[in-house]
Structures are given as structure tokens and as C-alpha cells.
Amino acid sequence: MAARYALVRIYPLGWARFNAAWIFRRRPADSSTRNASTRTGAACSRSAYKTNTRRFQMTHCQRAAALLAFCLHAGLAQALPISFSTSGSPAHAYFQSVPAVSATVQFVGLSAALDLTPDVGQQTRFFTFFAGTGPADPGMTGIEYQPYSVGLTVLGITKYFEFDLGVQEIANDQYQIHAFDMPSLSFDLGATGTLTVTPNAFYTQAVQLPANTPAYHLRDLYATFLLTAPTVTPVPEPGSLALAMLAVGALSMSRWRGAQPGRDGWRGRLTKVK
Known about the structure:
alpha+beta; six-stranded antiparallel β-sheet
């Protein structure tokens, strides 16, 4: 209202001045209604506070747990350097008893350094394969097998792939180098774990070469190197332990902040609870 007072003409008393605020004032509720309203509002405030606190604690606990799991995974799943070397074979000459035909096969070793993550296989080259052929014989001889033993050394431990490989002269003045099966090897590396080397059978399949082909680098051989963590639980490194302690501290801080009375939201604003 624009004016504080309003004039009301009342007969026969004449003019009287009445307070407009008193005329249009809001009627107060009785004491029982006012107390019930107050209690209801306080109960709602407390209920909302508890709900927000539980939601706050749940969200931050989940985040802290995820952080802890990530830190532990980052600390325990570190790549480990593993070096290896392979020793090849001398050139094997086939059909020495038949002067009209000939073939040669040789495996050449190599060395490499790998960064292996536990329980994650890594495929890498570990041998090169050379082969050549001589003249063709119209009579075609049968298949001839020769034994091979090529070595693999990992961290001072040497084991051997032992297998047989056959060569045969076939039709159309060609030679066939038959498929061969290289077994898997396992290395016990102590606290580092167990290394399993499995040759890839795709690169040991049969191949045909024309007659009179000089020996050349026919293909590379690949194997999967899989490092399995040891059965005993390793002591975490200082860096991993620090990450785990950081995650635990974040979890404790989130629970402490959520349990403080009178705090609302993640910023910790004070809320008056009736």
C-alpha cells in the first residue's frame, strides 16, 4: 500500500484514523499450528540432510574405491624388461644321396629386449628362416626329414625347440618344405614369474619353391611371449605403496567430511538444522 494510514469515514463518530497495516494484517496461526509447522519443517530438513549426506558419502566412497583400485593396478601391472636371444642351426642339406636333387634349410637366431606386462601376451620375431632348392629330378624323390634343435636363452636360462622338418620334390619342377611343429617352452624366472614362449603356427606352414632357387630369407618366425606373475604375493614397490596410501587417505577424508554434522554438499557449506 502506498500510504501507511488510510482514512475511513464512520458515522456518526466523524472522521477516524485507522492503521491500514492493522486492517490488512495477516492473521497469525495459533500456537498449536505454528508448533506443528515448525516441527514438520525441522523433520523435513533433517530428512533431507540425512539423504544428502548418504548420497554424498556413497558418491565419494565409490570414487575413492575406484581410485584405490586404479592405483593398485597401476602399481602391480608394470611392464618388466625381459631380454632373450636365440641360437639358430647350421644349413641342412637334403637329398645328399641323390646328386640330381638338393635343398637347403637353415634357421638363423636373433636377440631382442621386450617390456612384458604380466598376463598380457606379446608377439615378437625370434627366428629367421632361410631355404633354397637345386635342380629338379623327373623321377621325383620321396619326402626326407631331418631333425633340428634351436635354442632360446632368457635371463641366462637356455632351452631348445626340437622338431623334424621334411622336404620333398613335387610336380611341376617344384620343392615343398613341409609344415613343422615347434613346441612351447616355459622358463621359471623366480620372483619375476613364469615365461611361456609359444611359436605361431601360421609361420611354420608348408611352402613351395621352384627348382634352382638360391637360398634366401624365406620368412620370419614369430612367437607369443607370455609372462605369468608368480604365485606368491610380491611386496609392492615404494611408488605403488605411495599410490595405495594416497587412495586410502582420500577414502578416509571423504568419509570424514561426509560424517561432519551441519555440512551440506561436497563443498562443506554449513547448514542450519532445526
